[in-house]
Design brief:
Helix content: 25-40%
Number of strands: 12
Membrane topology: Single-pass type II membrane protein
Largest sheet: 8 strands, mixed
Number of domains: 2
Structural class: alpha/beta
Distance between the termini: 94 Å
Protein name: Mannan polymerase complex subunit MNN9
Family: Belongs to the ANP1/MMN9/VAN1 family.
CATH superfamily of the largest domain: Spore Coat Polysaccharide Biosynthesis Protein SpsA, Chain A
Strand content: 15-25%
Shape: globular
Keywords: Golgi apparatus, Membrane, Signal-anchor, Transmembrane, Transmembrane helix
Strand order of the largest sheet: 3-2-1-4-11-5-12-10
Main location: Golgi
Radius of gyration: 28 Å
Number of helices: 10
Length: 373
Amino acid sequence: MAVARNMRRTSPITIVLASLMAFGFLCFLFSSPSPPVSTSSTTSDSRLEDTAEHPLSPPTKPFIPQPVQNDGRHVQAPPVVKYDLNALTASSDASNKAERILILTPLARFYQGYWDNVEKLSYPHKLISLGFIIPHTKDGDAALSSLEKAIARTQTGTEQNRFASITILRQDFDPPLASQSEKERHKLKNQKARRESMSRARNSLMFTTLGPSTSWVLWLDSDIVETPNTLIQDLTSHNRPVIVPNCMQRYYNTDTKQNDIRPYDFNSWIDSSTAQALGDTLKPDEILLEGYAELPTYRTLMAYQADTKNPRPKRVIDLDGVGGTALMVKADVHRDGAMFPAFPFYHLVETEGFAKMAKRLGYSVHGLPDYFV
């Protein structure tokens, strides 16, 4: 049965209510938010001369937010900034020339000894920036929590101990190994996937944090817990594009019943004709690894070149491969394109592939067999 015409007409009350609702919605949509309330203020006396002042500031400098207007906008848009990299130095007198250092660490586990050691570095902390990349794992979450607590204590402590800036990244890809135990990390079958993943993490960290004011990049592994407090001055004093100290491991010697040290990092080496010939037999996607009996390369390993009885810490040797436990690199080497290949580069990946890439770009690579970390 058809509905009567007068029953289908819209009630005047309905029209009024609908109009009020529409008007209220438009007022809400176009109303301006209240300006944020500032809880702290920063004076020019409390900042470094070269403190960055805009949101796109390089992460190697602390950022001071600009005041905001009542409409919530910044007083000025971020300016177009020009950087004269020709004026940037990376010299043997890094401290006196106030050259900025970027310490980068892939962090799967947090070791308090690592943080304590970094805090003790005698290079001016106002010239040091730190960068970390942490995996999205249970161990990574625990490492992040411990790291944030350590950072909070340091950055709210005495001004002399505070670092210029600290950047923390989370990996956007899953780690290839479920366990980060030393036994699992060093299994031969796990090396290719593990080190390719490490390369991706290192590159993500480096490309994100390398600012135009950075002179040197120190790659420092998270389990390095003991170095001279003059580590930065000592490594930069050689004024080499790429230089790496000798990484050792403290352990209890069950034969002598005494504490002892032994070689740990076997990725710093001088190439051999045997290794080169072995590389010629490999498929394009296969890599050469050092320190495994299954792959006898007969390279000269810097780990075994140490003179522990009469060490000469300033003794320098030429290398073809490097490890990344405490690797000092001039920032220009990275800027020129030397990164950590996450693919077989002349059958090498990660830090060893980086050394090969740096040499292909015309840079020399060096090691300090008697300088221990």
